[in-house]
Amino acid sequence: MIPLVLVHGFMGGSAQWENQIKDLSKDFEIILIDLPGFGANNHLPVINEIIGFSDWIISELRRRNIKKYHLLGHSMGGMIVQEMVRSDYNNIDKLILYGTGSVGVLPGRFETIAQSKIRAQEDGASSTAFRISSTWFLDYEKSPAHEACARIAKYSSIEAILAGLDAMSEWSGEKYLKHIENKTLILWGDGDRTYLWPQIEILWEKIRNSNLSVIAGCAHAAHLEKPEIFNKIVKDFLKNS
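Request: output the structure for the sequence above.
Response:
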């Protein structure tokens, strides 16, 4: 059985995958990653480059003796896994790019990266975690799943928040998309405020061996808003495509 590695995004953590672990672990070994500075690894030194996160994960997988694997990356994690495909392509089977894009400045985002950095320094880590995580849901903080998500986001220090924003703003992977040969699923919530349709369309058009699945009526955290649909799509892709 080829394991599935789950890579969370900015201000995320492995705890956000609870609904996926319960369901997908029936068919796959699930490998959870907490990025340095976030979630359960918020004590580790922060990283301010996407390629640095990629190198760290690959080293961590080797430390755990994991070689061949499927790979799913969400949001900033989707940028990271695009780098991983370049560095560790011989070991990666199927690829899932979820709620992500190839341009790190996030054109069309609910606010610019620069604005997020200013507000984070003015408001502090806890308020920033609550405010930004609310935008990941169609109904903002009224979403039943927001409270738990915000708790995970609040593990992020101000240093990790600023480093993550810097990592995204300095990264672009668009010119490498044509070289991705893995069977790829592009997965997106149609109400996503962080990665708008043009970013998704670029992935779909430029990754040759790709399929697109759009989940209606949810935003950036489709795996929390509509977990049953999300899990079914992921499972079907990994088992049948």
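The CA atoms of residues 107 and 195 lie 8 Å apart.
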